């Protein structure tokens, strides 16, 4: 699906074309060209025209940051001594403009830097109270949401259609507090221990010397951490090239602990099934769009919502009772390993409700760039499990927001909860807004400051008797689920062929000794896959600096 038409606005070769009323053929040609230009305009391109239509007169007088109105030419020319003289230091308007401009940009996210956002609601359509007591899951309940989609390995300015994992994060604003479900378009992740996260990101980013993407770095890391292979298959399959954000599923990845009103506990994995149908791009389509419309996914989402074709997803869950999970924990089956999935046959999906996006951003920076998601944001009835990666993300995500947005990032409009007023004993720091109305800033106190709420209980995770140590995992099976994904999920010839082609295309840029190691590991996944990758690899005596692809 191409977001706009490619047209050639070539002038007529006949002389006198600039007087269309004199010649009928020229008039028709001009009308046709104008129509082609109009066809280029989509909902995103019409944003400013829509604003002008909504405001038939200027919205007011331009002011300084402090609200003082600016006179004629105050925003056009600097204060100077004569037309060619020195600029005056007392030109506070100029100084304010330049000083603010110097500080417009904030650090980009260390991962998932480029993204798109939209807003809407989540409506519970099924009775889920049997498993969880949060009011978010009361049948019929509607909760306002903010959703951000992204590319995991992206930098700002890169193409939306590069082969990558897509982020899918949801912020739900409820009376119980803000709940963040921070997920992706794959049900697993590369690693299970957060200690390895910085190295994973470093291996996927640019070489610190050449400042180029380095296949040797990536595949060297992968071969030394075979638990990544399950996610590698997802990444290089068709799922790594979704046709926009609307046509992909979302997954919470981690196991969460749910508690109902009776105190019964369950473990859960959340899934979001797209109601638009799964649709992916071919590598050639993705390459074309990267060159012609690098913001393809962002534009597609904005246009769909702007044209009232509101995308939606069905929120589902896989449930395991706590007692059953504890029994399974005694075996080698690790339910809390983010590199593995739960059996679809044993734990079928249970529908919960419908997520619908129906509003575009009004200000990308304030509403999306300042959105701060963290797995630490949970509500009563939902708690974290002993998933090690989830435990690490609780700190990493919140702390990265303190670096990017400041210590009071939760007071920003995008992150503050409109459903309730927060009451903390945190004070001061950048962008602090005092919400205590003169109350005490220490706890406990005798001056009627906020007090603890009775009846609120934190759930407890049962940990088998063990010792605190840097436990080295026993030799684990990292390939069984990868085999199932290849043989049963990618069971058709075309998806399997695309997987091998995508892997070979990327692996081609790595050193030959690394290629051999990677092929040996893929042999443990499937012999057919191993042969398909090896067949498509170009193995010259001298490693090429980069591979040039022919564009047809």
From TrEMBL:
Keyword annotations of the record: Heme, Hydrogen peroxide, Iron, Metal-binding, Oxidoreductase, Peroxidase
Name assigned to this protein: Catalase core domain-containing protein
Cofactor(s) listed in the protein's UniProt record: heme
GO molecular function, one term: heme binding
UniProt xrefs under PROSITE patterns: CATALASE_3 (PS51402)
TM annotation in the entry: none
Amino acids binding heme: 397
Family statement: Belongs to the catalase family.
Matches recorded under Pfam families: Catalase (PF00199), Catalase-rel (PF06628)
Keyword presence, Iron: yes
Entries under PANTHER family matching the protein: CATALASE
SUPFAM superfamilies per the UniProt record, alphabetical: Heme-dependent catalase-like (SSF56634)
Domain Catalase core residue range list: 63-451
SMART domains associated with the record: Catalase
GO biological process: hydrogen peroxide catabolic process; response to hydrogen peroxide
Domain of life: Eukaryota
InterPro entries: Catalase, Catalase_clade1/3, Catalase_core, Catalase_immune_responsive, Catalase_sf
Cellular component terms per the entry's GO annotation: mitochondrion; peroxisome
